[in-house]
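Thread: "does anyone have the structure for this chain?"

Original post by V.I.:
We have the sequence but no experimental structure in hand. Need at least a predicted one for the grant figures.
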Amino acid sequence: MTEVSSLTGRLLVATPALADPNFDRAVVLLLDHDEEGSLGVVLNRPTPVGVADILAPWAALAGEPGVVFQGGPVSLDSALGVAVVPGGGGEGVVLSGPGAEAAAEGAADSDQASPGDEPLGWRRVHGAIGLVDLEAPPELLAAVLGSLRIFAGYAGWGPGQLEDELVEGAWYVVESEPGDVSSPDPEQLWRAVLRRQRNELAMVATYPDDPSLN
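Reply from O.Q.:
Generated one for you, tokens below.
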């Protein structure tokens, strides 16, 4: 396993220096990261669109707020379901929904685990966090899901692109927690993730939204 692949399941937290408006104050969960590139979803971009409006069968399982999140600027017509299954095992990534085939290409090579250890319709990414096959019947997972969030689109990086951004100081890399996926107050997730760090990053959480006013 290469050093590159070790970031799967961790969070990218946008630094105040990151100028791209697509990722201003973004918290990105990396779903796949290796020498072929990186793929993740932004955890703190809720949209006004309800899950019931586009994926009615899954609406009852989606956590509050029960809306679709914009996972990133790529393939906004694709839907990804990220779910926490306490005690879930196995490895790998399953991406589903219209347009998700392209997103799955980079993840397919890393999917080497036996599906027998996992609930049907769910595949682990890291710890208790995994992705849901949104074409499966929701009843398969209703009894085991700890939380579910639906994302439209994803964030993607080509080979070496994310590494270059890390060198440039665009992102902090920190450990994820299962509760990050289902935060009931996603607009405050950027500050909350930084605040829990036991180093100088905790101070960054106090950075003003508009530095010119400081």
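V.I.: this helps a lot. Confidence is low (pLDDT under 50) at residues 1-5, 89-115.
O.Q.: and The chain has one domain: 10-88+113-205.
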